[in-house]
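pls design
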């Protein structure tokens, strides 16, 4: 099940040194595989050559600039201890999900179009299964400096959608994001997509909310433990919010807004884009009104409007989706070691006679198959 372990470890290592969604790295991985790219990067060998997509457009690879990037990545990669990275992540309750793992959301594969910023791997924290959560989901985004009107609408939308087993995806920021997450978590599940390591609470004021969400939902990032957010990371992160769901709702957005960046990604990915109208005198609704004026977004005012726009969500049954799969001997031993009352991964690893990292890997795969679930004490058999 899943990718070769060497490739998975290489992908995890690459998240520490290469910016998320780097197109050149995506081309190298597609042609040569993660294990070779990582090995040659660590060794300081020349970068593997890539065949560019034919066409009349501009070159995607600038040899001089790419060589400078490769040298900088090599300097960083030479200091990376992947074993220590995986151990620190596991200790923080964070798992790495590679593109062919059962927990990987299939919608993210649409980022792999030529020249696109494909995702090379995700760090995930929380008791939910990312793929299952995103099957029936909607993104709600908007201004950080939201008005009381905007936060009220975002909370009402998120709560009503969560009550109908629709998972709300957003970016964890103050304002609209926070209002949507809190309301969705109160009624169901939510997914937080962050631009930093999942052990870094940003914004700090949402640390308690993130901890609560991790019990039933998930937090997601392309950046490893310890990584602090940089300004550009938020814009790169926005493409994940748009890609994970079939539709995005913009509740409030100024003329210049990160929410409009997420909206542009939704349009590029042919997702359903929706916007909530606001007072014509409100600067925080200018972006929404522009989307509506230019017919880029459909007008929504409540959960019924959102579900009517999305449409195909009705074809996806609510609740967790079990994945039927054949277990490897290793995963079977891990499953046998899981109790109904729950126990921590270290206890399970000792009981099945395997290391902590492969045990965590098997637990993630078993969770995706619906055979185990997270609980306050660690992992248990489903009740």
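designed seq:
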């Amino acid at each position: 099940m899943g990718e070769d372990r060497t490739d998975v470890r290489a992908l995890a290592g690459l998240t520490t040194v290469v910016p998320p969604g780097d197109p050149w790295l995506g081309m190298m991985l597609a042609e040569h595989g993660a294990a070779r790219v990582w090995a040659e990067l660590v060794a300081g060998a020349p970068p593997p050559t890539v065949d560019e997509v034919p066409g009349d457009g501009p070159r995607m690879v600038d040899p001089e600039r790419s060589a400078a990037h490769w040298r900088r990545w090599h300097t960083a990669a030479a200091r990376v201890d992947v074993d220590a990275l995986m151990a620190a992540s596991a200790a923080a309750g964070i798992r790495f999900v590679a593109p062919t793992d059962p927990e990987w959301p299939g919608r993210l594969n649409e980022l792999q179009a030529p020249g696109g910023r494909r995702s090379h791997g995700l760090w995930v924290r929380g008791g939910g299964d990312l793929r299952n959560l995103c099957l029936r989901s909607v993104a709600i985004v908007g201004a950080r400096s939201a008005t009381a009107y905007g936060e009220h609408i975002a909370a009402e939308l998120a709560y009503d959608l969560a009550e109908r087993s629709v998972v709300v995806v957003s970016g964890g920021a103050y304002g609209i994001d926070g209002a949507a997450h809190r309301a969705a978590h109160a009624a169901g599940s939510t997914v937080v997509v962050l631009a930093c390591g999942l052990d870094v609470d940003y914004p700090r004021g949402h640390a308690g909310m993130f901890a609560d969400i991790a019990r039933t939902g998930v937090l997601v990032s392309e950046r490893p433990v310890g990584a602090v957010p940089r300004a550009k990371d938020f814009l790169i992160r926005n493409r994940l919010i748009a890609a994970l769901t079939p539709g995005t709702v913009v509740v409030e957005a100024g003329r210049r807004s990160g929410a409009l960046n997420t909206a542009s990604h939704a349009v590029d990915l042919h997702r359903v884009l929706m916007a909530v109208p606001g007072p014509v005198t409100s600067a925080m609704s200018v972006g929404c009104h522009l989307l509506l004026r230019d017919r880029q977004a459909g007008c929504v005012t409540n959960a019924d409007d959102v579900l009517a726009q999305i449409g195909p969500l009705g074809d996806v049954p609510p609740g967790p989706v079990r994945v039927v799969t054949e277990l490897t001997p290793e995963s079977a031993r891990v499953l046998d070691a899981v109790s109904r009352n729950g126990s921590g991964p270290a206890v399970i690893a000792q009981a099945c006679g395997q290391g902590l990292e492969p045990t965590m890997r098997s637990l993630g795969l078993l969770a995706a198959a619906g055979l185990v679930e997270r609980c306050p004490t660690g992992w248990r058999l489903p009740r």
